[in-house]
Write a structure and sequence with these properties.
Number of domains: 3
Distance between the termini: 29 Å
Radius of gyration: 47 Å
Structural class: alpha+beta
Largest sheet: 5 strands, antiparallel
Number of strands: 12
Number of helices: 8
CATH superfamily of the largest domain: Histidine kinase-like ATPase, C-terminal domain
CATH class of the largest domain: Alpha Beta
Shape: rod-shaped
Strand order of the largest sheet: 1-2-5-4-3
Strand content: 15-25%
């Protein structure tokens, strides 16, 4: 979830909660104020009745006006005096309908008799006024809330635009690109600080990349020369007739070690080139033809180990570097041969979605979390441990996905295009 969406959602929930609570408090507050006003009017009517009774020694005539009714009831001797307010229904004879009302029930002693006095006023207008005020206030709050949401949305988008521009440049940042990293100017201090930090980071990363690239290139080329000299001297030494069998075995061991060191150097150099995207010259590669070619190249090795190859190939073109495609297939097939059993089998399936290379082998599955790491290999393996790492980098370069799965007794490597 994006930050702006999360902020807007939290803001909306908080505003709605405050709106509901404040609306309820506001409604009851207005209702309480208007009820107090009605009670005050009822008290004035009570005071007028009491003053009239004291002056004229009798009760006023009961009346039933449009919004007010006054009635009397003679109580028994010794009845308790009472006085309270209550909500009830006020019936309007002219309209023949009941509406909400507010009553004051009190007692008056007149010449030894006790009378219950009921003063009732209609509270319909007060209720309507409360609803009207509440609806107006609610409408204003809702309009204000919607306005704030709209303003926040556009304002936040405008405020966060420099951040999104910087993020877009970071996603497109390439160490091998000669173009300078650029950021969008902003007046927001936090984003300006972020931009300056990103610029410093990009400059440092590019400097470190150049230093590493220079070291890698120089080390690789410097190593190739002495390795070539050693190989040449060993070839000459092996052809010498005066060598004993023991000396010949020692020289052969050195020769194999130097050859392995040379292949390791070439593999590391290839990894560096792939990771830094220094390999171009892409073209359409028909994988079915490439797989058939690789099977013919490994024919003798397959026959020597009595390994049967099952091919299920569809026509599938992939746009990539021809040399890297050859390395990818070479690594996957040679890996399937090297780690297979005698009289085992290899199944190669190619369709529009991807490529699968399955082989019989050890009954123990590889560690899928480490299988594609550099220098990861079984104790019995004679390889450099870089084959799958190089294959992974090739797949990452072109957006492919390389996975490993073990389904007894098959080890499956799957490339999803």
């Amino acid at each position: 979830m994006k930050l702006a969406q999360k902020y807007n959602r939290a803001n909306l929930y908080t505003s709605l909660l405050i709106l509901v609570l404040s609306g309820a408090v506001y409604y009851f507050a207005i209702h309480y104020i208007l009820t107090q006003k009605l009670d005050h009017d009822l008290k004035i009517e009570e005071e007028e009745i009491v003053a009239y009774a004291r002056k004229y020694k009798k009760l006023p005539i009961p009346n039933d006006f449009k919004d007010q009714r006054i009635s009397y009831e003679l109580l028994e001797k010794g009845a308790q005096r009472e006085r309270y307010y209550s909500h009830n229904l006020y019936f309007k004879p002219d309209e023949r309908e009941a509406e909400p009302g507010r009553s004051l029930i009190t007692t008056i002693r007149l010449e030894g008799d006790i009378y219950r006095v009921s003063i009732t006023k209609s509270s319909l207008e007060a209720e309507d006024l409360v609803r009207l005020i509440f609806l107006i206030t609610l409408s204003v709050i809702v309009i204000l809330l919607l306005s704030l949401m709209v303003i926040n949305r556009f304002l936040l988008n405008s405020l966060w635009r420099p951040f999104h521009e910087t993020l877009k440049h970071l996603k497109a940042f390439n160490l091998a690109d000669a173009n300078e990293f650029s950021v969008q100017p902003t007046e927001i201090d936090e984003f300006e600080e972020l931009n300056q930090s990103v610029l410093v980071m990009a400059k440092r990363a590019r400097h470190d990349y150049k230093e590493l690239k220079s070291f890698t290139d120089n080390a690789s080329h410097e190593m190739m020369t002495p390795l070539a000299v050693i190989n040449s001297k060993l070839d000459t030494l092996i052809q010498t007739e005066a060598l004993s069998d023991k000396q010949g075995e020692l020289i052969e061991d050195v020769y194999l070690a130097v050859s392995r060191l040379s292949r390791l150097n070439q593999s590391l150099l290839l990894l560096a080139k792939i990771e830094n995207r220094l390999i171009e010259d892409e073209e359409k590669i028909e994988f079915g033809a490439l797989i058939s070619l690789k099977i013919r190249q490994f024919k003798e090795l397959l026959q020597a180990n009595s390994i049967q190859v099952i091919q299920q190939l569809e026509y599938r073109e992939v746009y990539m570097n021809k040399h890297l495609a050859d390395i990818l297939m070479n690594n996957l097939i040679s890996n399937a041969i090297r780690h297979n059993n005698d009289h085992g089998n290899i199944t190669i399936q190619l369709n529009q979605d991807g490529l699968s290379v399955c082989n019989t082998g050890s009954p123990i599955a590889l560690d899928a979390s480490k299988a594609f790491e550099r220098f990861y290999k079984d104790a019995s393996s004679e390889g450099s441990g870089l084959g799958l790492a190089i294959s992974t980098q090739i797949c990452n370069l072109y957006g492919f996905k390389l996975d490993y799965l073990y389904v007894n007794p098959q080890h499956i490597f799957r490339v999803e295009f």
